[in-house]
Amino acid sequence: MARPRHPPSQTIVIKLGTSSIVHEVTHQPLLSTLSAVVETVVHLRAQGHKVVLVSSGAIGVGLKRMEVATKPKALSKKQALAAIGQGRLIALWDNLFGQLGQPIAQILLTRGDISDRTRYLNAVNTFKELLSMGVVPIVNENDTVSVSEIKFGDNDTLSAITSSMIHADYLFLLTDVDGLYTSNPRKDPNAARIDVVTSIASIRSQVSTKTLGSNLGTGGMETKLIAAEIATAAGVMTVITSSKDPKNIFRIIEYNNAFKSGTNTPLSGLQSGRSSPEPRAAASSITPTPSSSEESSLTSTPSLEGVSSSSTPFSQAARPPHTLFMPSTMPLRDLKSWTSHTLHPSGSVIIDSGAHHVLSKRESGGRLLAAGVLGVRGAFASGQAVRILIRKHRPGESTEASTGSDSTEGAAEGGGPSSTRTTYPDGSTITAPNTPEINPSASLSSSISTLDALPTVDEDMTPSTTLRTLPEDDTVVIERGVDATAEWELEEVGRGLANYNSAQIERVKGLRSSYIPQLLGYADSEYVVENITIRVPPS
Ligand code: GLU
Questions:
Q1: Distance of CA 106 to the CA centre of its chain
Q2: What is the pLDDT of residue 486?
Q3: Which of 73, 198, 474, 491 is the most exposed place for a label (fewest CB within 10 A)?
């Protein structure tokens, strides 16, 4: 009899939300779910896989310990409960894993911990070491010291960043529903589960993510989409599935590996858009399954725009219920992923539309020359992360003449075009892409909208220019255009790492690189910003 072949070793991150760890009302630990997760992880380890667990639940366990009925609103109270609960949570995991002889480790992170490149690399090395020792690291946010500036905000984002740090093959977001649905399956009988997502940007318009999420957790489907965006951009296959049956993880891996290992597979067809056994899926972003049937991919599916029918090889094998987000075919390199998702930008560099066009091309290498810089906002040091903003006329008004089209070299990866616009009381606006800020609850848009208009005009600026303060002391100039009524708007299109400080870039802006040594007395680089990731391509 042939021995069963073990699949190749893969690195798997499994994220469990609070609703999968403690009961929503009694806050008692859900021991059967936790035990099933432990058995699954130990089994995956026995197959040679490396597994990291991202576990929420500290606050939930703390609530139970203190017999507090509902999650408090005050940050300090939540932090105190997390401090009470985290020790018990990790003790619980250690106890369960210990029964099966599996050592674990606790890793508590904040964004601040990994926003320095050296500390980030040290965290990566610790993960690597633990995994090579056969240990299962159990990660949570270090809630005690997390304040808005350094908070991941939710463990969906934390798990995505962890997956990208360790170059995981899979990220499993285990939750109380078995996938992403077109609408809330608890309320809408026509809600259809989406099997495969190839473009998160286009799927946003086709699903309603608002209504899902438990009372205890901080996530919901929107944070899962953001997590999927971060993880898939880093090349990680991301799965949403139910925490009720963690053993499905094997079936999901087997199911998707079976397709991956074949030639001309549905997966490769989906990724590349080439003709595949599932040709419509190759061109579309989602493949739905009706909520009413477990093996529903064998049944006909409702007709939606950009959705493939299920009479395909994908559906012929018994497909365990889940939504799979396909990884990017051109994953961001580690440094770029770190820059765009982990770092807190210290200021902004404003570029012209020509530079934006060039940076959007792969050949640019994501490097910006001084010639493409229009201005600098905020104070930042060399080596710090900066927002890349473009200046353009407000929609409906004349467009900015393109300048400095030769201002960049090399490439930047493109991103989703979705963005959030914030309008000030006087009507001026700034737009930012819909990517996670340091703390989603204190994101650029939500913070700015609470600021009052500044009535004064800065003396250093021309009378037609108004200064406004953004969070992190960033300052945005709203300039009046030539016709005195038109206004410029600044839009964040990406992020990068500054090679010079803000004052130095201000001095050399708009000039050829050959002026840098003359003006600054030295030239470390001919580029003022590097490792730029453009998330919003030019329109
Ligand atoms: N870190 C929080 C906790 O352990 C959970 C955050 C989340 O729900 O995503 O309770």
A1: 23
A2: 54
A3: 73
